[in-house]
Write a structure and sequence with these properties.
Length: about 70
Amino acid sequence: MAVSIGDRFRLAAPQTYLKTADPMPMLRPPDLVSLEEVGEVIALHPMETVAVRFRRGSFLLSLSQLEPVDPAD
Protein backbone atom coordinates (compact mmCIF):
# COMPACT_ATOMS: atom_id res chain seq x y z
CA MET A 1 0.00 0.00 0.00
CA ALA A 2 1.41 3.37 -0.97
CA VAL A 3 1.23 5.81 1.93
CA SER A 4 2.25 9.45 2.11
CA ILE A 5 2.37 12.04 4.86
CA GLY A 6 -1.07 13.51 5.44
CA ASP A 7 -3.01 10.34 4.60
CA ARG A 8 -5.83 9.56 7.02
CA PHE A 9 -6.28 6.20 8.74
CA ARG A 10 -8.15 4.58 11.61
CA LEU A 11 -7.33 1.46 13.63
CA ALA A 12 -8.50 -1.76 11.98
CA ALA A 13 -8.83 -3.68 15.28
CA PRO A 14 -8.33 -3.10 19.01
CA GLN A 15 -4.66 -3.04 20.03
CA THR A 16 -3.02 -4.67 23.05
CA TYR A 17 -0.84 -1.57 23.51
CA LEU A 18 0.25 1.56 21.63
CA LYS A 19 3.88 2.58 21.07
CA THR A 20 4.47 6.34 21.17
CA ALA A 21 6.23 8.07 18.27
CA ASP A 22 8.53 9.98 20.64
CA PRO A 23 12.35 10.00 20.27
CA MET A 24 12.36 7.45 23.11
CA PRO A 25 9.15 5.43 22.51
CA MET A 26 7.06 4.16 25.41
CA LEU A 27 4.23 1.64 25.55
CA ARG A 28 0.87 3.18 26.38
CA PRO A 29 -2.55 1.68 27.14
CA PRO A 30 -4.76 0.95 24.12
CA ASP A 31 -7.72 3.01 25.35
CA LEU A 32 -6.05 6.26 24.23
CA VAL A 33 -7.36 5.72 20.68
CA SER A 34 -10.85 4.45 19.83
CA LEU A 35 -11.57 2.44 16.68
CA GLU A 36 -13.70 5.29 15.26
CA GLU A 37 -11.01 7.96 15.70
CA VAL A 38 -9.27 9.16 12.53
CA GLY A 39 -5.55 9.92 12.59
CA GLU A 40 -3.13 11.54 10.15
CA VAL A 41 0.21 10.11 9.04
CA ILE A 42 2.99 12.43 10.24
CA ALA A 43 6.07 10.30 9.45
CA LEU A 44 7.09 7.25 7.42
CA HIS A 45 9.34 4.61 9.02
CA PRO A 46 11.02 1.45 7.66
CA MET A 47 9.26 -1.92 7.39
CA GLU A 48 5.78 -0.51 6.61
CA THR A 49 5.53 1.39 9.88
CA VAL A 50 4.08 4.88 10.12
CA ALA A 51 3.70 7.50 12.84
CA VAL A 52 0.05 8.52 13.11
CA ARG A 53 -1.19 11.54 15.07
CA PHE A 54 -4.45 10.97 16.90
CA ARG A 55 -6.26 13.33 19.28
CA ARG A 56 -4.45 11.98 22.37
CA GLY A 57 -0.97 11.45 20.94
CA SER A 58 1.21 10.18 18.10
CA PHE A 59 1.85 6.46 17.82
CA LEU A 60 3.95 4.06 15.71
CA LEU A 61 1.73 1.56 13.92
CA SER A 62 2.20 -1.06 11.24
CA LEU A 63 0.17 -0.52 8.07
CA SER A 64 -1.46 -3.91 8.72
CA GLN A 65 -3.01 -2.42 11.91
CA LEU A 66 -4.61 0.45 9.99
CA GLU A 67 -7.38 0.93 7.48
CA PRO A 68 -7.60 3.93 5.15
CA VAL A 69 -10.37 6.48 5.65
CA ASP A 70 -12.58 7.48 2.74
CA PRO A 71 -11.75 11.11 1.81
CA ALA A 72 -15.48 11.93 1.98
CA ASP A 73 -15.52 11.22 5.74
